Amino acid sequence: MSSRTLPLLFINLGGEMLYILDQRLRAQNIPADKAKKVMNDIITTMFNKKFLEELFKPQELYSKKALRTVFDRLAHASIMRLNQASMDKLYDLMTMAFKYQVLLCPRPKDILLVSFNHMDAIKEFVKDTPSILSQVDETYRQLLEMYTPLSNGEFQLIRQTLLIFFQDMHIRVSIFLKDKVQNSNGRFVLPTTGPVPHGTQVPGLIRMFSCTGEEVTRLQFINGGNYTTAFREGSFEIFGDRVTKLGTNMYSVSRPVETHMSGTSKNSAQHTKVNSAPNPLAKEELNLLAKLMGGLEFQKPGNSDSGFRVNLFATDEEEEEALITRPDELSYGVLNIQATKVNLSQLTLQCTKGFDFFSFSRHPNNNTSSKGDDLLAMMDGL
């Protein structure tokens, strides 16, 4: 498993989250000043210096539950609130969109170009706020420093790690279904047309060489697709044309987006139950989570009346129905974890003594909960 996958996973999922929230804020006619505050607050939190320091440390990829906790916290980093059904849908859309992008990358290295497309969009969201823009530029620098020296083999390992992370997720998304790039069982349809990866040739020719390196025979074969010569390579600099459209905003043309559990959800639920046994990495996951959460700094809204709720469904009734019908195995309870301003060496010691450091209290999700909650973490049975 690649130890350098987490930053790319976080940045790309974060970019998709911002695309979706921007679309929903517009669709619900949220006032421009409030919408801008939501985007600025979330991006400020995403690119917090201490948080990124922990994120960029080489480390193995941890569970979906721990990552979901981070994004639930991020989504509630401003005056906007989502109830559990909308948060579930938001996370489904984020993960399936990025899974599709990873599958479509012509080369493993192109995952970095997808990340830069997300970063370019994030810069556009905060282009009028220099202080936040400088945070994003610093992350660009860290990405370049960490990933541009990697070999093709290392990028292939990152891609495999991402696909392993997503392999059991088969949520159907209306945009993908309408565009016929996803089947009714939630699995994606990979194309056999289009440009081949940069640096390769269109398949269809076999050349054989003698021991002296002289070409002696050529054989033609039908490649089974309609491939074209590769486009020019995208820019791996802070500024430049990425060439690929993967990682750009697919919601720029407004159209409704729905998610549905696939026909294999029953099997997925059974799989989740099997995996719900005590995890030998639980202490490490909680330790990672506390480090990440400890790096997040939030400002409590001064006026609780200024908050508002965003619904990712067409109506409140649809949102309530989704909350009722969603399988229990795929929903998350809410845990409060006090994990800020903590000595990490003490944390590790406490974790090994049975997690006495953490204070867990399970309670139902509440739309009117305090906006100053330390952590709205949708985890289930760590």
From TrEMBL:
Top-level taxon in the UniProt lineage: Eukaryota
Polar residues bias (residue ranges): 261-277
Gene Ontology cellular-component annotations: cytoplasm; plasma membrane
Pfam families: Oscp1
Region feature Disordered, mapped onto this chain: 258-280
Protein name as catalogued: Protein OSCP1
Organism (species): Channa argus (Northern snakehead)
